[in-house]
Structure formats: structure tokens, C-alpha cells
From TrEMBL, chain C:
This is Peptide ABC transporter permease. The chain crosses the membrane at residues 12-30, 102-123, 135-162, 182-201, 240-264, 284-308. Residues 96-301 form the ABC transmembrane type-1 domain. GO terms for cellular component: plasma membrane.
Amino acid sequence: MTPEPPMSQEPPMTPEPPVTVGSTATPLLEVDDLRTTFHTPRGAVRAVDGVSLRLSAGETIGVVGESGSGKSVLGRTIMGLISAGPATEVQGTVRIGGRDVHALAPGERRRLWGPEVAMVFQDPMTSLNPTKRIGTHLTETLRLHLGLRRGAAADRAIELLVQVGIPEPRRRVRQFPHELSGGMRQRVVIALALACSPKLLIADEPTTALDVTVQKQILDLLGTLAERLDMATILISHDLGVIAGRTDRVAVMYAGRIAETAATAAVFEHPLHPYTDALIGSIPRLSNEPHAELRVIDGNPPDMSAPPPGCRFAPRCVHAFERCREEAPPPHEPLAYDARHSVACHAPLLPAPNADSGNADSGNADSMNGGDD
Amino acid sequence: MFMPRETTTMIPRRRLISLGAGLTAVGVFLLALGLVAPLIVAVRVLLALAGVVTAFSGVSRLVWGLRRQRVDLLPWVCLAWLAVLIVAAVLAPVLPLKEHRDVAATLLEPVYLEPLRYYDHPLGTNSAGLDMLARCLYGARTSLTVSLLAVTIGTVLGGAIGVIAGYYRRGVDSVIGVLTNALLAVPPLILLIALSTLLEPSIRNMVLVLSLLTVPSMIRLARANTISFRQREFVFAAEAMGAGRLRIMARELVPNVLPPLLSMAVVVISGLIVAEASLSFLGLGVRPPEPTWGNMIAEAQGGVLQKHPSMVLVPGTFLFLTVFAFNVLGEKAQKRWNPRSAAS
Amino acid sequence: MTRKLLLRLGELVVVLALVSFGVFLLVALIPGDPAVAILGEGHPPEDYAALRAELGLDQPILNRYLDWLGGALTGDLGHSIVPPRSAVIDRVLAALPVSAELAILGLLLAMALAIPLAMWSAAREGGLVDRAIGASTFAVLSVPSFLSGLLLIMVLVNGLGWFPRGQWVRVSESITGNLHHALLPAVVIALSEAAVFTRILRSDLVVTLREDFVLAARARGMPRWRVLVGDALRPSSFSLLTLLGLSFGSLIGSTVIVETLFALPGMGSLVVNAANQGDFPMVQGATLLIAAAYVLVNIGIDLAYGFLDPRTRRVHA
């Protein structure tokens, strides 16, 4: 870990006691004010800029955001795949099962990967070694972490392939990745991730590279396996539609920060952050009128080497006012009846009747909310 | 390539300048020590090398600090060396140099003088009292003439054949392809040796033989580039406007094929310099008394080497610096204009 | 696969025919009368005529070529014109093992040096080690092998006396003695090859290390070195393999130099001496053999791709 020079202009975001953005049970994963900064020739890029998360055993959370919002970097930093190095700075803490991932020695950290936390990558075409047989991928992992003998590892590999629904597993273990279809390969990748029964699975856009018809199968498979193995899951996606109905909670990321987090249903029912609202509005729905215009968000995500001061979304936000451009909004829970619905916005889109937030700008927010529907 | 890594934390400019100046001073001191100190040759060479590396890193930091931005100095240093060498080689007959080939004229000169000790023989003298600096510069004349001429002929010839092969494809292409493969099937040095049994060792023949070595790889490069360019819109457009084949090749294809060919040519030059030197070293190239770096080094084999290492080190340094300079510039050019084959 | 192989073999035959013809032309085009060259001046004209008939010089050129080729195919490469006029094939066969040993030893040393260096360099991309290795390989590339050979002789043989001078000990006489004599020449051969190999392999490794499957392997908890060796090395070795075939040419080149430098009785000194004496049948025979070996090696390399990359391996039903 690098020593931590003061990087941010803002006050620290975790007050005492920490705002728990998750369940009340002992968390499996605790992320506190995580910041990942890449130093590039063009300047420092703050890919993740102050993210806090809680996840308890068996819980699923969806992380949603546009490309470049830092969600993949967040996933990799949580895992420790991205760690402090010559051009990378990681601040804040990640605890998995109570152990500070970034404080561990590299060898220790590696021992977490597999039995504690595993990752499913985006593109199954590239995340398997083209020169290795499917079986070798599985057995080498099993032998490394579980110390299985060759024969036992081979048997377990076949069991795993059965578990992820691959037909003819005995033939498949002898094949090379290029001999399998995309969906089959992603099943292999999932089998690999499950090989050592991790407690936490990070699925980074697991279906983006797949055919639409296969996407649902893979997502369903991930869901059932997570439930059966009591595995906590972080499902990263750029597509709110993928996450709807599949996760317990949703965290919406924008420009390296979490804009809003809540139970999945709550986010869809009454999004508090203008960005979330716009994101939901941009999902095409069958129930829409034919030829109804999809809402799009004007402008582009900010350049992360020079993010705007204040709220990152302010330049694109139709509701933004002076304060948004000057002061970054801290996450808070404006809803009296839902303490787990947190939003980082000066003027959240509060449901009109029971607006009770103690937010100085609630009147403003009310008026905006009225105009929204 | 030798660019220091993009350092992330900005080093303060003043520290950069003082560090650069310090390193430069230390480097120059080490180099001077290596060149003149009365030590074992191996130690002196190591000292000089360390000095050069230190001084170079010092100067690049200094420039970085002064210009507030990183500059890759190496290509400039190489360019400077080649410029000095070429000018000196061209002007060799009019420069006030001592005798370089006529043994009869140096009967009274001291032999085996150490370099960097005497004003009238800055790089010392050889076994016959001939001046090493003069010999090295005349060697550069031969070496550069031969390799530059050969590379020009090889590039023009190979480029033309390659463009034709790539443009016409089919019959012409496969004939040229087989011939190219046949030419490439003989290892270069063996081809040179075999041809040297046939031809008298003269500058003209050396140029001929070395250009033959250049042709096949130039054909391949020109052909591959032509094939990729002839499928571009601008060629179709020219064809549609009724341009003749010759015109398309000359006006549309050649200008596009030229940059990768030329950048390849720079790398080839260094190969040809080595080839010429190797051949002369083996006694099959330019023969004494005409000095070349290769035959100067050959002269110093055996017992001489033990007693007078400078006989090898002086022409060896000229050879190394020149080949190195062409390599550096060639790689730079390849990266810029021929990214596909810039790997090595 | 079979089709491809047949095609390659067809190409091989054509190329070898062309090479042999080219090599043959060396003699046909030689200036002056070979008979005079062999016997020297001042013999009776009948002697020259007889020798010309013996060498087949009175025949049309195509007949002579076919004759020579027929001989070459049956292992008869003619006789040296330098007394004692021994058979070319005998001399070549005596010299071949020496060169082959040097070349193979050099190649192995080069690989043994290049693979770890490239992996070290690629693993520390952009770091001090990487830059130092990059700079030194580049510098080594610019040192011709006769120069590096002489410098090594100067330091290791003359200066420190670690290696013996000249002479050659056959493997059959003493294995350790043979290795002792072959090692330094092999190092000289290995140096420039190792530099090229390191650079190529490093640049491919750097690309491979950015691949998803490398990250995925790390994410499975594989130790770094295992990822480097087990996952990254094989997919990165294609360029190296191609280069291996191509470098055979420069390998032979440096073998020639090294043999002359260390006075070793291999193909290189054979060819150089023959060339110096104008002994063209010898040059002819040796060149033909070397060219044939070169072409064959490159075909072998083509076939080796299938082994390294399963994607190019076609499955038989």
C-alpha cells in the first residue's frame, strides 16, 4: 500500500459511524472509501473515486454504469487484481471476510483468489487460454488451491462442467477453447470461477459478448448457482435490464462514484438520482407505445483525468443548479421509510407526498419531481 | 525504446537539472578516465562504457529539465555521429591526415602507437606505422560507399519488382516468389562467400553482391504493401478514371510503398556494413592495402591482439558506433513507417 | 494438412532445383579456364583437354548441370581441385558434425539466455530491468560476431585463461574436452541470436500479458511465474519460432566466422579456405548442402506451428 497523501478536495465521505449501505448482518465484503487512480502520461485518472459498499454472505448486488464509469476497475480493485503499483494508486480499504485485501502480501492475496473470491470475465473468447485444453484450465486451478491429485482433479473438473450444464463433459475436457461456442465457453469460465467454491463471485459483464439468446441462460445459471452455493455475487453490467429482477440490490455508478444504491425494486420504482432516472428511461420496453421516443442522456461522461468539481453528473443533469457544480453531494438516505436507499444528490427526485429529507433544497427537488412524470 | 519510462510522479525541475548535470559530469570523468588512464585495457573499456551510459542519462535528464519535456536524445546522437563520420569520410583526401595505405612512406614512423597519446597520431599507428585515424576514415569511405550504393540499388530494384509482383499477382507473382525464395534459401554469408570465388574483390563487385542480398527482402516488403494498397479505394478510383497500369503503379502505389521500404533500407544498411566487414575480415572482401574496418580487425588477430588490443578496439569502435547508429535510426523509422515489421 | 505438406514439398523441390542451378552456375561462369587454374600454366595442351573432359567442361551446360545434379543426388559432389584432390563429400561430411554441434549448442545457449531474459523483461515492462535488457540487447545486436568473438578471446582466453586456444577435440575423444573447446565459440554464436530472440519474445510476451486469459489465470490465484511460464510463454512463441527458422541463416553466418576465428575444422572454415583457394567444387558442394538444410529447417518450423497453436491444427474426423 502506498502512503496516502491527501488526494481529494472534499471532506472524507465516511462519517462515524460508517453509513452502512448494505444489510445489517456481518458483511462478507466491506469496501470503504475506495479510490483507484491510474497515473498516465496525460495525468492522473481517477477511475474509482470514493466508493463504499457492504455485501453480506449470499447477497447479490448489481453494479450498473456506462462504459468508463469505473465499474470494471471497481470489480478488479475489490478483488485485488488491480493493486498499488508504479503507476497505480489504491486508497481506502477492501475487506473480504474481514481480511484487508490490499494490505496482504501478494502471495497471501493470491490465496484468496479461488477459494474466497473469483471473477467471471466479459469475453469468454479471450478469457480462456487458446493453447490450453478445457480440462487443464480446471485441473490446474483445483490442484493449486485444493491440492487435489491428478485423478481427483480430473473427476472434479467433470463434475464442475456438469454443474454448469455442459453436455458431454468427458469429451469437452479434452477440447480446446476454440472448439466450443461462446455460450459454452462462458459456462466453462463460470465453472472455473466456481472451482474452489468462492464465497464471493464478481461477474464483470458476463453476458455482454454473448448472443442475446444465450445471455438469459447464462444469467439464470449464475443466479441458480449463486443461490445453491450461497455465494455473494457482484454483477457488473452497463445494462439495467440485465440486473432487473436478478439482484437484491443495485448500485448505480457514475464517473467513479456510486450515485445511488438501494434494493433493486426500489430503484426501479422511484429512482432518486436524476442519472438513475435517465438510465431507466433509456431502457426500451415492450409496454412502450410503438415509435415512442427513447429518452437519451445528452452529453458524454466526464474525462476522468479532469472530472468536473462538484457533482460529476451536473454538466449533463437537467436539474442541476449552482451548488451541484461547486460541491460534491455526499451520499445520504432521504427516505424516512427506506433507510437503505442512499443517493448522492443535492436534489434527489423525492416522491412528492412524503418528502422528508432535511435537505435544504427539498423544495427544489419537489418541484423537479413534479415536472418529471 | 531507450526512452526512460513515463515517470508518474513529477520530479521537480531544478532537481532534474542538477541531477542531470551531476550525472553528465561523472560520466564525462569516467569516460576520460577510461580513455587515458594507465590501467588494464578491460578495466578502461568498462570505465569508458560506464561513462558513456552515465553521461547519456545525465544529458537526457538535463535536456528534460531545461526543455520541460522528455526528448529521446539517442536518435539525435546517432544522427550526429553519422553526419560527422560521413563528412569526414567524404573529406578524407583533403583532411590533414597521415598516411593510410602506403607502407613505403611510413618506414620512419613509430609502429603500434597507443591511441589518445600523441597529437600527430590521435588514434595511434598500426604494425607498419600507418595512421589509425586515417585508416578508419578511409575504411568508412569504403564501407559507406559500398553499403549505401548497394542498398540504393537493392531498394530500387527490389521495390520495382515487388510492386510489379504485387500489382499483377498470379503468374508474374509466383515466378518472382519462387525466385525470391530460392535467393533466400542460401544463407547470406554463404552466398557472399560463394560469389566471392566467382568475382574479383573490387568495390564494384562488392556493391553488386551486397545489393543482391538486399533485393529479396525488399521484393517481399514491396509486394506485401502493394497488395494491401491496391485494394484501396484510391486505386480503384484511378482505375475508374482510366489510368494505365504503369501510371497506377508509379503514381498511386509507389508513393505509398516507399516509406516502409525506405525505413527498411536504413536497417538493411547496418546489415550490409556488417556483411562487408565480415567478408573483409575473412579476407574475401576488400583486400589490403586498401583499409576497411573488417580487414583492419583481421590484421590484429592472433598475437597482436594480446599486446596491442587497440588495433581491434579502434576500428571495432568505429564499426560498432556506425552499425548501432543505423540500427537506432532504422528502428525509429520502422516504428514510424512500417509498424508491421518493427518488432525486432 | 496433407495437401499443405505436398504443396510445401513441391515448393521445396523447385527452390532446391533453382539453388542447385545457381550454385552450379558458379563454376560455369568462373572467369578463365578451370583446367589452367587446376594444373597451372605450361603443361601440354592434351593435359588440359583431358582434364576438361574429366571435369565435363566440353559438354553443353545443361548436360553438365544434370550430370552434376545426378552426382549430387547420389552423394558424389565431385573432387576438390586443390591437391590432394579429395572427394568433396568426404571433406564435407568430416566438417559437418563440428558446425552442426556449434550451431546447435549456440542455438540452445541463445534460447537458454533469451527465454528467461525476455520473461524477466516483459514481467517488468517499462521498469529498470526492462530498459537495461532492452538497451543491452540492442547494443549486442550492433556488434558483429567477429568483433564480439575477438573481444571475448581477448578477455576470456588471453586475459583470464578460462578457455583453451584453437584446436578441436572430437566428441568421440573426450566429451568434456569437446565441450570445453566448443563452449566459447558457441557463446559467440549465441550472443547476437540471443539478443534478437530476447527482443522478439519480449515484445510478444508484453502483448500476451495484456490478454484477458492472463488476467483470468491470475484471478484464479496462479502465481505470477506460473502464469508467465504456463500461460503466456506458449502463445507468445510464434514469432520466435518463425525467427528460429530465419535465424538459421545468420546462425550459419556466425558459425563460419567463429570457425575461422577459433580455427575449428567445420563447414565454415572449409568454405572460407576453399573460397580463398578458388576451390569451386568444394564451395559448390558445401553451399548446396547448407542451402538444402536451410530450406528443410524452415519447412520443419512450418510444421511445428501446429504443435504450438492448436487452432491451426486440423482435427482428423
